[in-house]
Design brief:
The chain has about 220 residues and is an alpha+beta fold. It is built from two helices and eleven strands; from the N terminus they run αβαββββββββββ. Bound molecules: copper (II) ion (CU).
Length: about 220
């Protein structure tokens, strides 16, 4: 029995061995196949990834170039003159000319104000914030400023609704004019009012005359 069993074992032994080796081969083949499948899938995913990336970067470029085109502001120059009462024939009645200003929306505006007024009109108590440049950058006769000493303020060109305030000093002695360059950007369309906040009019407070008359020290500011 033992012998037979051992013979039987030896007979069946190799068969089992061969079947095991076949299984091993199969296992190896299938694992290779799986490995190739994984490689193939990774390859396909990589190609898709590159393609998607290219598409998305194209669309990003397209959208960014689109936003650049909407963001590119038009450069616009607006010229104003600040005339004195003598120039207008009305003593004590300084005037911004023209009184009505129209500027395109989304524009980079250079507001050039040439003033002939050598008289200062310091801002009244509670209004001295208008001695500070707001909502843009300013140069006076080529020098950058962020404010003007109140004793030297002659006028302001202020559009409260859009937060811009340009400060115009009195023309210094020895000069005929002083030139204020105020740069700012317009955004939305709208019709606003500009004012001068310096008491440059007549009367005991300087708040009468030109200060109370439309088209003298106040006018329209249209962003179209
Ligand atoms: Cu004024």
């Amino acid at each position: 029995m033992k012998l037979q069993q051992s013979i039987g074992d030896t007979k069946t032994g190799p068969k089992r061995v061969s079947s095991i080796s076949t299984k091993k081969n199969l296992n190896e083949k299938s694992s290779r196949f799986r490995f190739l499948k994984v490689l193939f899938t990774v390859g396909i995913l990589a190609i898709f990834g590159v393609a998607l990336n290219a598409c998305s970067s194209n669309s990003t470029n397209a959208s960014s170039s689109g936003s650049q085109s909407t963001a590119s502001a038009k450069p616009v120059t607006v010229n104003l003159t600040l005339e004195t009462g003598k120039m207008d024939g009305k003593s004590g009645w300084p005037k911004f000319v023209p009184s009505s200003v129209t500027i395109p929306a989304n524009a980079e505006v250079t507001l050039k104000i040439v003033s002939y007024d050598d008289g200062a009109s310091p801002l009244l108590t509670g209004m001295t914030q208008y001695a500070n440049v707001q909502g843009g950058t300013e140069t006076i006769d080529g020098s950058s400023v962020t404010s003007v000493p109140n004793a030297n303020v002659a006028h302001t060109f202020t559009v409260p609704a859009i937060g811009i305030n340009a400060v115009i000093p009195a023309v210094p002695s020895g000069q005929t004019t002083t030139t204020v360059i105020f740069k700012f950007k317009t955004s939305k369309k709208g019709t606003y009012v500009w004012h001068c906040y310096a008491p440059c009019g007549s009367g005991s407070t300087g708040m009468e005359g030109a200060m109370q008359t439309t088209n003298w020290m106040e006018g329209s500011f249209v962003v179209s």
